[in-house]
Amino acid sequence: MSCGVALAISLLLTDPNVAAAAALPPPAADAPVSVAGEPLFADIISRSGDLRGVVRDWMASGAADEPNFLTGAIFTGFKARAAELAALDMQGHLILKERGTDGDLKCILRGISEDMPKKVEAVESAASPAARRVALDELAYLLNDNVEVITAPPAPPV
Question: Which residue among 18, 54, 100, 143 has its CA within the 20 to 30 Å range from the CA of 72?
């Protein structure tokens, strides 16, 4: 074994973070489990991230200021995808409600499901390019929130 490999191994073994992590007790059997890896919730995360990227691209490029933006295929397709995402969020809410678990996430998903169509409508009804930018920013924030609430570590019930 070379000296470099031996040194690297010894440094890994003396890392205080490794020792601290090893000293932690294992999680309790009844500790809340993240749903982020479940297929439905992973799909919500993926779709939200994709749509957030689209909104940010529109904001960066100024595409939303184009005269036919709202009637074009890109926006109408986005609108349909946002409606599908809102339906998935509601489905996630109903699943968590049926399980009787994770009250906060359950409520947040319902709220996002209800807010998504309103945020898209705000983009459509914006009276000026500045108002449309504000509406797009709020929509991007909601889509980001959709990702973050699912991927956040679950908290134990209070």
Answer: 143
Using alpha carbons, select from 109, 116, 118 the residue that is nearest to residue 142. Answer: 116
Summarised one tens digit per residue, pLDDT across range 52-102 is 999 999 999 999 999 899 999 999 999 999 999 999 999 999 999 998 875
The model's pTM: 0.77
Q: Which residues of 130-142 are buried (b: 16+ CB within 10 A; e: fewer)?
A: eebbebbebbbeb
Q: How far apart are CA 34 and CA 31, in angstroms?
A: 10
Q: Do 78 and 9 contact (CB within 8 A), yes or no?
A: no
For residue 137, what is the DSSP state? H
- The owner of tokens 């609108």 is 79
CB contact at 8 A, 146 and 48: yes
Type of residue numbered 40: L
Rg value, the chain, Cα? 22
Calpha distance 125→70 (Å, rounded): 10
